[in-house]
């Protein structure tokens, strides 16, 4: 393994560590949930490795104990993970110069890897492509590890896991606050918050996510040149 790869691996590891707690706890909850449905440990482990979409995996677990309906399963997965389309559009520029690494980066795009890779302030001596690869790889392994622990040992854990999903919400708030502190102009962040709040009022909390992503993408795309000139003038 070359020194370039080793440097990127070392730089990415501490960057992803805050996510370990969230991924670990949610993975454990997923493993316990699968076990409560009567599945052996191998099922949540294989599903964590092959599906890698937290919300969809929980939904898939319930679908497995219902009458077989692949088309409904496809539509539900598409609605739940439709936001990944917009993540992909946002990452086109980031992945442009990474070569064959994109074939790993693309299928491992999740909310957390998108946040970390999109806003990463990578040192100039670290290869950008390899850094993003290791960020995505570590998060992927964290999820499999958590699901495995939940499936194997979750039933004997001595504490209540109720409400652990808030760990990921807290992490996203921290990421947003950190990004806010680094911005020279907060206009894009304020627009994002405003669009999110508007979509929440119009569509409700069950359906606001995709309209929010569409609105943010459209507005920021239309204002891209104006925002760029404002930031450069600061």
From TrEMBL:
It is found in: Cell membrane. Its main location: membrane. Belongs to the AzlC family. This is Branched-chain amino acid transporter AzlC. It holds the Pfam family AzlC. The keyword Flavoprotein does not apply. Keywords: Cell membrane, Membrane, Transmembrane, Transmembrane helix, Transport. The chain crosses the membrane at residues 12-33, 45-65, 71-92, 137-157, 193-220. GO terms for cellular component: plasma membrane. It is a multi-pass membrane protein. InterPro entries: Brnchd-chn_aa_trnsp_permease. The lineage of its organism: Bacteria, Pseudomonadati, Pseudomonadota, Gammaproteobacteria, Pasteurellales. GO terms for biological process: L-valine transmembrane transport.
